[in-house]
């Protein structure tokens, strides 16, 4: 029985083989975890479809595509010569990964492109017939289309100087970046290169929210089974501000602006593997308890590596809380194609002038990074001021003020 790379989402063209949990020739049981395939967004687990002996076809660290055979399960007994010979990784080539495969099929001239591929092809005036396909059925993937764009751009002369890695120095250790870390680096840089990013700041007096939380946190946890944190207050304030300033909840698509009439809030979560941003769906319909439960569930799934592709896509706005690590102030980078991201920070006791008197108040700096192509400075400042008002006087939300 052949084990193939599972479908990893429409926008995921390939993955990298992780560590095999079973060795070549081992006996395995049905549903036993064999290997994880690391994609741009999540790690996909591959389990044994039946009892038998494992024959590994693809080694660790090799790039694979959906539908590609990576192992076989044979009946009881020895896996044959496969157990005695090491697995050979396919040599890297400059062309399609399927170019030399007997199973490769050229796409039909009238083959239907997926929406994401069609968008890349149309926006960049590409000829589908000139794109080398690597999809499991000979189809063109989004990765193929993006690769065609890169191939069409002449390489800079200076690029040749960076091809060879520099020599390692004493007391240094070279570690290959994981696919997730490479993706994070690429997406952040693409975000900087694409959007006209600007950050505006404000500060919020957390006295009222902290007092409300202290007063009701015990009964809240007893009633709802979840702790009352600050994220639910901020999420409620963000949704209210997005209602009033829809440009911050929109995105640019070519020469069009797409206004989102839904409020799916991305919540940045730091994990051992890197930063991920799962999405809290329909946050405008959730109570404080619903928000806290949703964020807690997403955070646990992120740390356990159990996030699905659906949980990682489609956010309209992002909140990132560097305050959990002690950050005083930062300028968050947009989570493309979103037009806004709110940065929360550490709460610090600071002397403030209130009604002509100097008092000590728990203060937090807020940072809103936004795409200046679609969000004007007035809208950005108004958005941040609105959040400040709702947090400093939570009763305003109850009275819809």
Q: Structural class of the helices, strands and pairings? A: alpha+beta
Determine the strand fraction and express it as a percent band.
15-25%
Low-pLDDT segments, ≥5 res:
77-110, 155-161
Radius of gyration: 25 Å
CATH topology of the largest domain: Chloramphenicol Acetyltransferase
Helix content: 25-40%
Largest sheet: 7 strands, mixed
The run of helices and strands is EEEEEEEEHHHEHHEEEEEEHHEEEEHH
Number of helices: 9
In the CATH hierarchy, the architecture of the largest domain is 2-Layer Sandwich
Described by the principal axes of the CA atoms, the overall outline is: globular
| Corresponding CATH superfamily of the largest domain | Chloramphenicol acetyltransferase-like domain
**For the residues shown, what is the average pLDDT?**
82
Q: How many β-strand stretches? A: 19
SSE blueprint and pairings:
Layout: E1 2-4, E2 15-20, E3 27-28, E4 33-38, E5 43-47, E6 52-56, E7 63-64, E8 69-74, H1 115-123, H2 142-152, H3 179-194, E9 197-205, H4 207-224, H5 231-244, E10 250-253, E11 256-259, E12 265-267, E13 269-271, E14 274-276, E15 279-280, H6 288-304, H7 309-312, E16 317-321, E17 340-344, E18 348-354, E19 357-371, H8 377-392, H9 395-398
Parallel strand pairs: 12-16, 16-17
Antiparallel strand pairs: 1-8, 2-4, 2-7, 3-6, 4-5, 6-8, 9-19, 10-11, 12-15, 13-14, 17-19, 18-19
Helix pairs in contact: 1-2, 5-6, 5-8
In short:
The protein is an alpha+beta fold and 401 residues long. It has helices at 115-123, 142-152, 179-194, 207-224, 231-244, 288-304, 309-312, 377-392, 395-398; strands at 2-4, 15-20, 27-28, 33-38, 43-47, 52-56, 63-64, 69-74, 197-205, 250-253, 256-259, 265-267, 269-271, 274-276, 279-280, 317-321, 340-344, 348-354, 357-371. The radius of gyration is 25 Å and the shape is globular.
């Amino acid at each position: 029985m052949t084990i193939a790379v599972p479908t990893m989402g429409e926008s995921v063209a390939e993955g990298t083989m992780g560590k095999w949990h079973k060795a070549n020739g081992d006996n395995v049981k049905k549903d036993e975890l064999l290997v994880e395939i690391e994609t741009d967004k999540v790690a996909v687990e591959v389990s044994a479809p039946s009892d038998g002996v494992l024959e590994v076809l693809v080694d660790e660290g090799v790039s694979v595509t959906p539908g590609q055979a990576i192992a076989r399960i044979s009946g009881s007994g020895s896996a044959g010569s496969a157990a005695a010979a090491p697995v050979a990784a396919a040599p890297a080539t400059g062309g399609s990964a399927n170019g030399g495969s007997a199973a490769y099929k050229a796409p039909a001239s009238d083959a239907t492109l997926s929406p994401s591929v069609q968008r890349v092809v149309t926006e960049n005036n590409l000829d589908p017939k000139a794109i080398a396909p690597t999809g499991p059925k000979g189809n063109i993937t989004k990765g193929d289309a993006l690769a065609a764009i890169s191939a069409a751009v002449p390489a800079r002369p200076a690029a040749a100087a960076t091809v060879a890695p520099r020599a390692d120095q004493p007391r240094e250790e070279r570690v290959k970046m994981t696919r997730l870390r490479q993706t994070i680096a690429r997406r952040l840089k693409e975000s900087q290169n694409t959007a006209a990013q600007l950050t505006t700041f404000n500060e919020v007096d957390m006295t009222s929210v902290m007092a409300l939380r202290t007063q009701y946190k015990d009964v809240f946890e007893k009633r709802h089974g979840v702790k009352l944190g600050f994220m639910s207050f901020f999420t409620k304030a963000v949704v209210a501000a997005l209602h009033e300033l829809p440009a911050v909840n929109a995105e640019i698509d070519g020469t069009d602006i797409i206004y989102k009439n839904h409020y799916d809030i991305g919540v940045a979560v730091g994990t051992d593997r890197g930063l991920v941003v799962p999405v809290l769906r329909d946050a405008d319909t959730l109570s404080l308890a619903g928000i806290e439960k949703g964020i807690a569930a997403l955070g646990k799934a992120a740390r356990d590596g159990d996030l699905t592709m659906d949980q990682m896509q489609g956010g309209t706005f992002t909140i990132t809380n560097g305050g959990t690590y002690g950050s005083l102030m930062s300028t968050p980078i947009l989570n493309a194609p979103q037009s806004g991201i709110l940065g929360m920070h550490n709460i610090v006791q600071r002397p403030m002038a209130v009604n002509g008197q100097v008092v000590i108040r728990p203060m937090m700096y807020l940072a809103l990074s936004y795409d200046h192509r679609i969000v004007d400075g007035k809208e950005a400042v108004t958005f941040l001021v609105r959040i400040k008002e709702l947090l400093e006087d939570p009763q305003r939300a109850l009275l819809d003020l």
